[in-house]
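dumping this here so i dont lose it again. seq + smiles for zinc ion
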Amino acid sequence: MTLRVGIARDERFLEHKTGHFHPEHPKRLEAIYRMVDRHFKDRYFTDRLISIPPGPATLEQMERIHSPAYIKRILKTAEQRITSLAPDTPISADSYLVAWLAAGACVKGIDSLMDLDCDAFFALVRPPGHHALPDRASGFCLFNNIAIAAQYALDQHQLRRILVIDWDIHHGNGINDIFYDSKEVLYFSTHDPMLFPYSGALEETGGDNALGYTVNVPIPRELTDADMIFLYREILHPLIKGYQPQLIMVAAGFDAHTDDPIGRSRLTEAAFQGITRLLMTLRHLSGNPPLFFSLEGGYNQRALADSVQAVLKELIEGPTASPELSPSETVLDLVAQVQSIHAPYGVFHD
Ligand SMILES: [Zn+2]
């Protein structure tokens, strides 16, 4: 089965300037847009790759996640040519508008999925969002795009169970914290614990009202593509079966790629393609919920464009056959640890 995929792209996302030497540079998106124009222009794709033009989110939607004081502070940065919101997060005068549009693109993506205009959606946007906290920018992120879109899906479309998967190599502390005590959003992240923001231990499993509804899996740097796909299969199969998500969202960062200058992992685009294949197959366990992706990190332009291409191809051309996986001892141990820590909560279904 192939999916109709909506994408949000807009030249305005290039107007968020971070300085020549900053890794989160407009060239990242330029590389992705060039790839889309090159590889998805045939007639075959025109019916299957649908453009969903972004519009701004409303203030009310933004305030469901971010504090009014914080939003005001971000809006005021329009008066300055350059503002440093955090040591690693410089922004330009237009950045507030671009970040607002990125959140809006994600909100619009939710509507297009719920209205059945497409079966999957990918927001090709910047700045990224998964580190943004209700009242603080950090890690190149201003507004928490995925959190704003997830909250909108709960409020506007009356969803009650959203699975958020975060395969960026950094822990998405913003999404983690915002929904830590909620059963309505189940957050599952794999990340390198030795990298910023150094959070997301296995034992961080959710607040008192939602124990087991946060699944943090710190991963060792030596995991191969096959290990990673195996890990995701072993976790997502019982999780999707047990939780029955009505929507699956992916914080899609590609900095776990072996060529990434910031991440230290060994994955290739085949890992992201393999996990996408899993999502397309496993969602049958939960009534085929729509798939939502939003771009997070990924700082080698070629690796980033190749990885996004692999995900889009998998979605559009249908699940390709899964290769035989022979997991390493390391990943078998890791899966056993996750299962044992989460066994008492009953969210995983065997
Ligand atoms: Zn990252």
